[in-house]
Design the sequence.
């Protein structure tokens, strides 16, 4: 007999918004952003797991859309949103580190592993990085190979290169105009941890 797995979507909803990188599917769980997926993305969950589709004007999506628009306009370098990162403890520790990578900069997988206190875990870090459920906002695109090469990205290497080029150019523009970057905060990380998901 074929076994089936039923996904509980009663507390989930989603919307789709346009972006310079194609349509983005935003998913909320219990009123908190839990997913941002691109079209054709590797490890993208099945559509039926996203819950009911609603208008982008419904909470909690308006603030997410506003901050994404500011980011794409080169006006926002750090998101300040409550996040629900659903994964194992190790995966969430990797994703928490991702939000610490400064805008316009990149880290290697080795450095990311070292920051976690697990210098020999580069491969495991790479796997967790690839399963990041909230693209762009949790910037897994800022992680590159040890030699500086463009390694895999769930949204596709072309998008990864475009995102890095965009951030680098926006940062240089800000610096040329004497605009300072906002002070780094850990609000995204701490607020994400405030709503841990069950891994059962």
Sequence:
């Amino acid at each position: 007999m074929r076994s089936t797995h039923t996904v509980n979507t009663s507390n989930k909803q989603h919307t789709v918004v346009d972006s310079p990188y194609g349509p983005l599917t935003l998913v909320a769980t219990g009123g908190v952003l839990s997913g941002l997926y691109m079209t054709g993305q590797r490890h993208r969950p099945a559509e039926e797991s996203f819950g009911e589709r609603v208008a982008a004007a419904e909470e909690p999506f308006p603030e997410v859309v506003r901050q994404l628009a500011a980011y794409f306009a080169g006006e926002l370098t750090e998101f300040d949103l409550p996040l629900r990162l659903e994964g194992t403890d190790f995966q969430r520790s990797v994703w928490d580190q991702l939000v610490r990578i400064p805008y316009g900069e990149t880290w290697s997988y080795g450095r990311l592993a070292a920051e976690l206190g697990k210098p020999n875990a580069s491969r495991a870090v790479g796997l967790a990085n690839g399963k990041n459920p909230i693209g762009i906002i949790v910037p897994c695109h800022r992680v590159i190979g040890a030699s500086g090469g463009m390694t895999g990205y769930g949204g596709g290497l072309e998008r990864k290169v475009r995102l890095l080029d965009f951030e680098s150019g926006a940062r240089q523009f800000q610096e040329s105009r004497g605009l300072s970057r906002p002070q780094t905060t850990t609000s995204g990380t701490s607020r994400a941890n405030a709503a841990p998901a069950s891994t059962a």
